[in-house]
Design a protein that fits this description.
The complex is a heterodimer of chains A (about 300) and B (about 500). Chain A is α+β, with helices and mostly antiparallel strands and about 300 residues long. Chain A has helices spanning about 1-15, 75-85, 155-165, 170-180, 205-210; strands at about 40-45, 45-50, 55-60, 65, 90, 95-100, 115-125, 130-135, 140, 225, 230, 250, 260-265, 280-285, 295, 300. Chain A has one domain (about 30-300): Alpha-Beta Complex (paralog of FGE (formylglycine-generating enzyme)), CATH 3.90.1580. Chain A has five helices and 16 strands. The termini of chain B are far apart. Chain B has a two-stranded antiparallel ribbon. Classes of the chains: A alpha+beta (about 300), B mainly alpha (about 500).
């Protein structure tokens, strides 16, 4: 009898593990104003800084500006409407696609050829997309207006920046904007607290709704404000840039010899805290999109 | 009073540091302790805030940039102890002179203890370079013990020639002994492979974890050497425990005669192929696959032999001559420790080998379309499971050696089999989740697999803790089990097991 009970319990656990998978997110998040304007830019002065985990002295000999936050759903929806109107992008088979001139292919092991042609920018049929499309124009899903744009490929991120005459930051530019000149591992300093950033099991408000992997938080969320009792720490980088750690990975511009992968920085809501260290790299094919991948742009100071 | 106290301590010291069971018990207890403490630094315990408490209480100094280095030190300290346990079993099971056995065991014990204490001290409690030096000294002792073991295992000694034709031999040379010898020599060479790279640390080589550079198109020779090192060391530890379990089952007959040459050939090919990763990476992989096949076939033959033996013994115990399928199955599973040790080798194919082959064959279509962070989870899950499966096999063997009997034996055995496999299965599903659920819809699957993993691992750890506490309390008893084991010396055999020495006489 006892044996049967133990056996039944184990079987029940296994069967429970086969529960049907439901789409997320189940409900729109509450709208939250962070007070950080996603339209603003932060100046990153040229000069020396420490690059990577092993603090290699590196110099960037020009000033540049990066977006203070990741590009938002509202911004991307506006861009898509403009880009559709101008014919920069078009809709093919439930995808927004656009032209890319291709990469030089060298035939390295595991290298995939990225040919010139039309490549996907965002999928329209994935539940992770926080945009609505009515057949003519895009609008952000309610509650997600100021959340980072996700489900966007490297092509889609690059196209967004270039549409406005900007570009994606390179990995080196991104890292300097994130850590400043003093070699810190996180944008705000040397240690990470759960209310510094949105990461796996950081107990941010969205985790109460969808579990430890959480949902995106509005851009600039971790700025020292309190949101219905949830107190955040001001987690800007030394140059006043927000969300450089956690929330969503951010595409970088670099195209490396012998690899078709594009790199992402910053860690995301779905990663443990150590992935949020400024030197941590993630990579994927340029046509990859996911609910934890977004971007921000860089522009020259002369603007 | 003082004399009696000294005698009591001396007797226990003799048991813990001079008998195979005692030495293995100390190493398992230390690994358990390290796992219990350092396990709080990640996973659910870190999420629940236990990590912060542990760091504060123990005064750990966790610099963010040094995480990878700390982890490497932690792996090495645990690996040294696991290697020591296998060496204890080998010196116990394979005939050699008493002074050789004593010297090897003493050297490796000193080595792994020094490496463990000073390695962890250096990595987690301030960064005194002196401790790093002492850690290297400890590792050097482990290496030296390996050299002594290789010498002791030299298969061409006349006194160790096989007399019983039931065991694999070639010109009288014991092929099982040859396989043990080759595994040890391969481990020594492969340890050097890592040591050479380690010697460049701080002078050109920077700390990294293999899973972090997996997509780098240009890996340095030192990076390739480290990647080769960690793979081959784990493979050799796996081969070592397979041979040990073979001795435990008194593996012999036709299958033994086929399996031992296969194991020896597999060991040579796979080791040389892994070393060849540095100069000839693209071709070396093919030879690694080639080398893995005979080794895995040898393990399969052991499983067939062992299960057949268990069935025959189980049926004979109940006097059944003509058995149905269910009676045979019942007989097969009548002893969870011995059944479990072989079952885990089979289960390894579902969660490690099979998955690994699948990943390798479909790399471009399945793995490389994921973000690197996902592929990383798959890879780390892959070798964590392999390490843990080897650990459970060691535990089964040790639990048998220390005489776990009756109901406790059955409960311990089945609890470890069921809960560890539940955890390993769940980890496998978790790590391969992208094959059947999109990133946007994965949360329920993640929740369940993480829960099942935690439940499974927690149950194994509770069973292990109970086992360790039982042995700890036993040490405080004047005439405890430890005393009986010490009195019986290394000839002690447990339930349903032919002792090594008895078998050697038979050989």
């Amino acid at each position: 009898m006892k044996r049967a009970f133990v056996l039944l319990t184990l079987v029940a656990l296994l069967v429970a593990g086969c529960a049907p998978v439901r789409d997320m997110p189940p409900a729109p998040p509450p709208s939250m104003e962070t007070g950080i304007d996603p339209q603003t830019w932060a100046l990153v002065p040229g000069g020396e800084f420490l690059l990577g985990q092993h603090d290699h002295e590196t110099t960037i000999d020009y000033d540049y500006e990066v977006m203070v936050t990741e590009a938002t759903n509202a911004q991307y929806a506006r861009y898509l409407n403009d880009a559709l109107a101008t014919g920069t992008v078009r809709i093919v088979d439930d995808q927004v696609v656009g032209h890319y001139p291709g990469d030089e292919f060298r035939g390295y092991d595991h290298e995939k050829e990225i040919e010139a042609g039309e490549w996907p920018h965002i999928p329209l049929d994935d539940p992770g997309l926080r945009l609505d499309f009515n057949g003519a124009s895009f609008t952000p899903k309610p509650g997600y207006e100021n959340h980072p744009m996700v489900m966007v490929t490297w092509f889609g991120a690059k196209a967004y920046c270039e549409f406005f005459g900007w570009r994606l930051p390179t990995e080196i530019e991104w890292e300097k904007a994130a850590r400043g000149p003093d070699g810190r591992p996180f944008p705000w300093g040397h240690e990470i607290e759960s209310n510094n950033a949105n990461f796996y099991s950081s107990h941010d408000p969205s985790e109460k709704i969808v579990g430890a992997q959480g949902n995106t938080t509005p851009v600039g969320f971790y700025n020292g404000r309190s949101y219905e009792g949830y107190q955040t720490l001001d987690s800007a980088s030394p140059y006043g840039v927000y969300d450089m750690a956690g929330n969503v990975w951010e595409w970088a511009a670099d195209v490396y010899e012998g690899a078709h992968y594009r790199y992402m920085r910053g860690g995301s809501k779905a990663n443990y805290a150590y992935n949020l260290r400024v030197w941590t790299r993630n990579s994927a094919g340029p046509d990859y999109f996911g609910p934890s991948a977004g971007f921000r742009c860089l522009r020259a100071v002369t603007e | 009073m003082e004399v009696r106290l000294m005698q009591a301590i001396s007797k226990r010291f003799n048991y813990l540091f001079r008998s195979t069971k005692g030495l293995a018990l100390v190493a398992i207890a230390l690994i358990s302790l390290v796992a219990a403490i350092w396990g709080t630094l990640s996973g659910p315990l870190a999420e629940w805030g236990v990590k912060d408490i542990m760091v504060r209480v123990l005064g750990m100094d966790l610099v963010e940039a040094e995480r990878e280095g700390r982890i490497i030190m932690l792996y090495h300290t645990i690996a040294m102890a696991v290697v020591a346990i296998e060496v204890y079993f080998i010196t116990d099971l394979v005939p050699m002179k008493d002074h050789e056995r004593a010297t090897i065991n003493a050297t490796i014990t000193a080595g792994y203890l020094i490496a463990m204490v000073f390695g962890l001290w250096y990595a987690y409690f301030g960064h005194d370079r002196v401790f790093h030096g002492i850690f290297l000294f400890g590792q050097s002792l482990v290496f030296f013990a390996g050299v002594l073991l290789a010498a002791a295992l030299w298969p061409w000694k006349k006194e160790y020639r096989v007399k019983d034709p039931d065991y694999a031999h070639a010109g009288g040379v014991d092929l099982e002994r040859l396989a043990f010898f080759l595994v040890v020599v391969a481990a020594l060479g492969s340890a050097l492979f890592g040591a050479v790279t380690g010697s460049y640390w701080g002078s050109g080589h920077e700390t990294f974890l293999a899973e972090d550079v997996l997509r780098e198109p240009h890996k340095t020779a030192l990076e390739l050497a480290i990647i080769g090192h960690l793979h081959i060391m784990l493979a050799l530890i796996g081969m070592g425990i397979t041979l040990i379990i073979g001795r435990w089952f008194d593996f012999k007959g036709l299958l033994h005669k086929i399996a031992m040459p296969l194991m020896a050939i597999g060991c040579i090919v796979i080791t040389l192929a892994v070393w060849a990763v540095v100069p000839y990476e693209p071709y070396a992989h093919i030879f690694i696959y080639v080398g893995a096949v005979p080794s895995m076939l040898a393990a399969l033959m052991l499983v067939i032999f062992g299960w057949d033996k268990l069935i025959r013994e189980g049926l004979a115990k109940h006097g059944i001559t003509k058995a149905s399928f269910w009676q045979k199955l019942r007989a097969l599973m009548h002893d969870p420790l011995r059944f479990g040790s072989l079952w885990q080798m089979v289960f390894m194919n579902f969660t490690v080998s099979g998955v690994g082959i699948f990943m390798a064959v479909t790399l471009e279509e399945t793995m490389r379309v994921m973000p690197a962070s996902e592929e990383r989870i798959t890879l780390t899950g892959h070798w964590h499971i392999l390490s843990a499966i080897i650990a459970t096999i060691i535990l089964f063997y040790f639990a048998d050696r220390v005489g776990l009997k009756g109901r406790v034996r059955r409960w311990f055995g089945w609890l470890v089999i069921v809960s560890s496999d539940l955890a390993f299965g769940a980890v496998t599903v978790f790590s391969l989740k992208r094959l059947f659920v999109s990133e946007s819809a994965q949360q329920p699957l993640v929740n369940w697999t993480v829960l099942l993993t935690d439940v499974g691992l927690a149950t194994v750890l509770v069973a292990l803790a109970a086992f360790m506490l039982w042995r700890l309390f036993d040490l405080f008893r004047k005439e405890g089990r430890w005393a009986q084991e010490l009195a019986a010396g290394e000839l002690a055999s447990s339930e349903e097991t032919t002792s090594a020495s008895e078998r050697e006489v038979a050989r």
